[in-house]
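User: Hey, quick favor. My workstation is busy. Could you predict this chain's structure for me?
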Amino acid sequence: MTDTSIAAAYVATNDFRVGSVIRRSGAVLSRHFLTFLIVAVTAESPTLLMVYMQPTELIGPSEAFSLGLVATLVDLLLMVLGTLSYAIILHAAFQDMRRRPVSLAESVKVGSSRFLPLIGIAFVQKFVILPGMILLTIPVLFLYEMWFVGLLLFLIIPSSLLYTMWFVGVPACVVERLGPWTSLRRSRELTKGFRWRVFALALPLFVVNAGSSNVIEPVLTAIAVPIVGLAGQLIWAGVTAAFTSIVFAVTYYDLRVIKEGVDIEQITAVFD
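Assistant: No problem, here it is.
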């Protein structure tokens, strides 16, 4: 069955299938694994600098301040490179889905052309949502025994809702060439009516991305040497980041098929 016929089936059944998104995303990743891995690992490489910056002995306040400043800059660099890598892999995934040759140079060109709006989205997600959610938890921290309930209600739930609503903000920005807020509003429109399923798709990705990388490095370091642990963690972070980028693309495609009845060529005509 071709992508177009799959799209027609989705329109007829008005269905969004988490298993189908994961399966097709894995297929896209497997067909261009090395290309996607290079892009994602390059974006994650500044984490190595953070590792080598870790002090091996007690340091004074001035050194701690300097390390904190550098860590902040590295974190910003990771955000910038990560956002750009999402756009690059997203374009390559769409080219694969439409049975076109995947050119890394072309994908870099398309991703870079949307650099500023994408950074705007990244800043909104990192510096607007998270501080706001933390501030909401401050009053309940004084309840002591209720701190976990407060954290759940005022941090995890709103953050999960926003993450689900804005799940396809990046592909909307790249494909439809929208600004940051318009892209997020477009994502909210596309996910409406399917947010529980999108959440069921997003939650495992978040858990795997956040949890597994913290397990792989210590395990590999324990059975080999530290450099092996660092390499394993970096590769795993690259694989999960690449897969997540493809999931963004496939999810966006399916939601537009369901809601608007378009096919892959109509969606990606902007790339021609």
